Automatic annotation (TrEMBL), chain B:
GO terms for biological process: sulfate transmembrane transport. It holds the Pfam family SBP_bac_11. InterPro entries: Thiosulph/SO4-bd. It comes from Paracoccus limosus. Its main location: periplasm. GO terms for cellular component: periplasmic space. GO terms for molecular function: molecular carrier activity. It is found in: Periplasm. Keywords: Periplasm, Signal, Transport. This is Sulfate ABC transporter substrate-binding protein.
Length: 279, 331
């Protein structure tokens, strides 16, 4: 609503322009936002608490749900640092060096954006599954990739791969390499250049990318659903737990678990907003 | 959930491994059986402890039965399957994971419990829906999931078709016409049973929801404030809930004995009682007699009798351009 006031005033000052049009458009935007974002969000919490606090707490502290929360967090804790490392490496290579295949690398990084996560899941299944390309070898060595933590981590990593690099690329491109070159002329070594010059310059974009990556990692459903095997208390992530409870007519349980995921997402988004305002 | 299970779950939560070796099975099951096995498993754990003195952990995985079968083929280490589609067990048998003759391994074609497509109508049954013929009436709107994507919907289609055949002297064309009329009364085909339930109960669409009888009771309970009534038609189709040991995995896990016993135990009066309490029909005579009032008498046709087995259902009805497609096009 705070947006509406200055907009309306601007409309009033413009000569010969009707005030109705901007108001109509703003009203439309507010209504659409309410329908598409606000109402569903409120509804999640309303349904979660529909049977009272006790029922809500009972559903949240259910051992299987707690495990799902823990597993989801664990996956994010593994995936996000790896993506930070690879994101920085990729952005560094692309913006600081000219090499054949550079454009191709940029495209490759973006592939997960355009491919549905379920395709990623199926691809991994066809590679690492029992009937897959490397399946027999893995089985012979008793290595479990699919339907275990490694599979979930791999797919989540694939889906979230572009976030850090995509945030860093435009920034590092714009900043150019002058400061780093200056540092080198002054005798800085590779690691010193990175930690003293590059990292401070990109830290906000890096954090921002990491936050987006986290949000995506905890919410991933489609790809994980293919490779998880949904073993309760073992490989069931929070989004899968929500689906399970929902299918099982345990609406309150589903919405209670959904509210947890929503709270995590909201916290992540608040961190993101805070970072944005500092940037 | 019993405390022992909580402790085990907590131990997993903390990443601790159980100190002593114990029996462990993974039961891979269909998507709406979570509460059922949450009730059954602790009972089996007690039974197993009394019988052998050993503890057993039962892990559960739930999902669409075909998706689960696919996952097992790709290495999901299931020791037993408890499915709601026979064809999904057949897929495993074809790939050598389940014994070829799994249907003979346990009584009642390896189906410890069963159900049938039945109706859920609105409070007071205002349209007076009693049997399949009522679904073909012009003033009735029926809701059930798309038979192309849902096993549940497939059973509804086959039950309606079987009814159509039985009441038209086995005339396939007339049965097609009958089912076509029912299909024309469906305002929306959802992809799965849960979505169809929502369409009926929360979006308030349709006069009757068609799903497994076991489900109709559960839905009526979930939406108690709406006063839905479960109606069992006079004739319907036997819907098996097949179980089988995934022999290859169970052998590898050293869980062949406990897996076999687990499935056998499902036929004991104790387990059958729990199954009946969860609205599934059971074969144990005493338990069935005790719950007789909850399960109205019904004439059950089987896929084998009416259609000559699931193989023929696949090739004649469900295959591309088959009878199901023709009914869809003609509606």
């Amino acid at each position: 609503m705070s947006l509406a006031a200055p907009q309306a005033r601007a409309g009033a000052h413009a000569p010969g322009q009707s005030r109705a049009m901007p108001r109509l458009l703003i009203g439309l935007a507010v209504v659409l936002t309410a329908i598409i974002v606000v109402v569903p969000l409120v509804f999640i919490f309303w349904r979660a608490f529909a049977q009272g606090w006790a029922s809500y707490l009972g559903n949240i502290t259910d051992a299987q749900t707690l495990h799902a929360i823990w597993l989801t967090a664990l996956v994010a804790v593994i995936v996000v640092p790896v993506n930070i490392a690879f994101g920085i490496a990729a952005a560094w290579a692309i913006t600081r060096f000219r090499f054949p295949g550079r454009k191709l690398l940029v495209t490759l990084i973006e592939i997960p954006f355009s491919i549905s996560p379920i395709i990623a899941g199926i691809c991994y299944l066809l590679l690492y599954g029992r009937q897959g390309l490397w399946g027999p070898w893995l089985a012979a060595h008793d290595l479990k990739i699919m339907f275990a933590l490694p599979g979930i981590v791999l797919v989540t990593m694939f889906v979230t791969a572009p976030f850090v690099a995509r945030e860093l690329l435009p920034l590092m491109q714009a900043q150019g390499s002058e400061q780093e070159e200056a540092a080198v002329t002054l005798g800085a070594r590779g690691w010193q250049v990175f930690s003293r010059v590059t990292l401070p310059n990109i830290r906000w974009a890096l954090l921002y990318g990491a936050v987006l990556c986290t949000a995506r990692a905890v919410g991933e459903f489609g790809g994980v659903s293919v490779v998880s095997g949904s073993i309760r208390g073992q490989t069931n992530t929070l989004p899968l737990q929500i689906e399970l409870m929902f299918n099982d007519l345990n609406t309150t349980g589903a919405f209670a678990a959904a509210s947890t995921l929503t709270v995590i997402a909201l916290i992540v988004l608040i961190i993101k907003a805070a970072l944005e305002s500092r940037r | 959930m019993i405390p022992k299970f909580r402790i085990a779950a907590l131990a997993l939560l903390l990443g601790a491994t159980p100190a002593m070796a114990q029996d462990k099975i993974l039961n891979v099951s269909y998507d709406i059986a979570r509460e059922l096995f949450e009730a059954l498993n602790p009972e089996f754990q007690t039974y197993w402890k009394d019988k052998t003195g050993r503890d057993v952990t039962i892990d559960q995985s739930h999902g669409g039965s075909s998706k689960q079968a696919r996952a097992i083929l790709e290495g999901l280490p299931a020791d037993v399957v408890t499915f709601n589609q026979e064809t999904d067990v057949d897929v495993l048998a074809k790939n050598g994971l389940v014994e070829e003759n799994w249907r003979e391994a346990l009584p009642n074609a390896a189906s410890p419990y069963y159900s049938l497509p039945a109706f859920l109508v609105r409070k007071g049954n205002p349209k007076g829906i009693k049997d399949w013929s009522d679904l073909a009436r012009d003033d009735v709107k029926a809701v059930f999931p798309n038979p192309k994507t849902s096993g549940n919907g497939r059973y509804t289609y086959l039950a309606a078709f079987a009814y159509g055949l039985a009441n038209n002297g086995n005339d396939v064309e007339k049965a097609k016409e009958f089912v076509g009329k029912i299909f024309a009364n469906v305002p929306v085909f959802d992809t799965g049973g849960r979505a169809a339930t929502q369409t009926f109960a929360e979006r308030n669409i349709g006069d009757v929801l068609i799903t497994f009888e076991a489900e109709t009771k559960g839905i009526a309970k979930q939406y108690a404030d709406q006063g839905f009534e479960a109606v069992t038609p006079a004739t319907s189709l036997f819907a098996a809930f097949p179980v089988a040991v995934v022999t290859e995995n169970a052998k590898k896990d050293g869980a062949l004995e406990v897996s076999t016993e687990y499935l056998k135990w499902l036929y004991t009066p104790e387990a059958q009682e729990t199954l009946a309490e969860n609205h599934y029909r059971v074969t144990d005579k005493d338990v069935a007699a005790k719950h007789a009032t909850e399960f109205p008498e019904v004439k059950l046709l089987t896929v084998d009798e009416v259609f000559g087995g699931w193989g023929k259902v696949q090739s004649e009805h469900l295959a591309e351009g088959g009878i199901l497609d023709q009914v869809f096009v003609n509606q």
